[in-house]
Amino acid sequence: MDNFPAPVALVVGAHGVIGRNLVDHLRQLGSWEVIGLSRRGGASEGRLHHIAVDLLDADDARAKLGDLGEVTHIFYAAYQDRPTWAELVEPNLAMLVNTVTAVEAAGARLRHVSLMQGYKVYGAHLGPFKTPAREDDPGHMPPEFNVDQQAWLESRQKGKAWTWSALRPSVVCGYALGNPMNLAMVIAVYASISKELGLPLRFPGSPGAYHSLLEMTDADLLARATVWAATDPACANQAFNINNGDLFRWSELWPAIAGWFGLEAAPPLPMSLDDAMSDKEPLWDAMVERHGLQPLPYKDVSSWRFGDFVFRWDYDVIADGSKARRFGFHEFVDTRAMFFGIFEDLRARRVIP
After folding, report:
1. Considering its fold, how many domains does the chain have in total?
2. Does 185 lie in the same domain as 167?
3. Bridge partners (DSSP) listed for residue 24
4. Do both 140 and 227 map to the same domain?
5. Over the stretch 160-176, which tens digit does the pLDDT of each residue have?
6. Which CATH number do you get for residue 327?
7. Could you tell me the residue range of the domain that residue 157 belongs to?
8. Per-residue model confidence as pLDDT tens digits over 121-154
């Protein structure tokens, strides 16, 4: 940290599973002013301010971010979903470009830009890839927006006073609603509906996925790692794999998850959750009424396409997290305890029965 009176964080994608937990962590630290960017905005309180902005619109970005000269750190965790990998590139690169360009034009005292990536950098979404993946592994055939974003950021940073970092988590688990990539919510709602129907909990993915090695990234752990990488000078212009630090197979974890929900674990049965759960909205609405749950729309608690995506991985999806440890980040999370903690939190919030 330098001698500026207080760091000011601009969290882009403030309502996602990553951004929401990052905002909470920054506020808990007490020394940060936090500005959250999202399409729908939010209520400001204390040292947290929300701005509603369409980052795909360069003019709107300039208008809404033009007065943010106090920003010292950009934490970029926004995402626009599209049907194909190729279609993801243009909007997701444009949002990053429009954000950084607008903040720089505002004369911000910028010190660091933190970019949220993932194992797509290594081709994890395409099929079996070299594991454990390492930050200096060779690239793969494009398109891949994570790679384009980092290339643009590296080019933009040349000759500037600010630095960048890239965080590469596995599947991120934490509390967020209306998020297209929230595996913990997928499991919690799927298990709750199974229980409501008097069914055992069946793993819905491919047979090979049930026995492959995986790892997860707790959203709170990722928030702490993100701030660490953005504020430790040794981490300047570096990429880091961030994961919980343990490995698991669904074949071992799934029965324990079933037990947490008071269910038996029956043998796996491959199915498309996106198809099988498409008619369950009336059932969910009835569950909300019967159990006194928050009146949340079914679309905000279900991320079935993402569940199908993860449960199809019939190959190991793991990355080497030792670089972060070598640079000084030593925290870890027990993945089983993480899932149970998220389920407890969802129950306490009256999101699931």
Report:
1. 2
2. no
3. none
4. yes
5. 999 999 999 999 999 98
6. 3.40.50.720
7. 8-172+218-242
8. 999 999 999 999 999 999 999 999 999 999 999 9
Report the candidate in 127, 131, 81 with the shortest Cα–Cα distance to residue 312.
Answer: 127
Bridge partners of 297, per DSSP, are none
Cα atoms in the 13 Å half-sphere on the side-chain side of 338: 27
Same-domain check for residues 202 and 64: no
pTM for the model: 0.96
Q: Are residues 257 and 290 in the same domain?
A: yes
Distance CA 332, CA 172 (A): 14
Helix, strand, coil distribution of the chain in percent, nearest 5: 45, 15, 40
Confidence of residue 181 (pLDDT cuts 50, 70, 90): confident
DSSP H or E stretch at residue 89: helix 85-105
- Residue 353 CA to residue 329 CA, distance in Å, equals 37
User: Helix, strand, or coil here: 18?
Assistant: helix
pLDDT digit string, tens, across residues 255-288: 999 999 999 999 999 999 999 999 999 999 999 9
Q: How far is CA 20 from the centre of its chain?
A: 9
Q: Are residues 181 and 302 in the same domain?
A: yes
Spell out the residues 6+ positions from residue 126 whose beta carbon is closer than 8 angstroms to its own. Answer: 140
The side-by-side arrangement of strands in the sheet containing 8-12 is 48-52, 33-38, 8-12, 73-76, 112-116, 163-169, 238-242
Q: From CA 91, how far away is CA 111, in angstroms rounded? A: 25
Helix H or strand E encompassing 12: strand 8-12
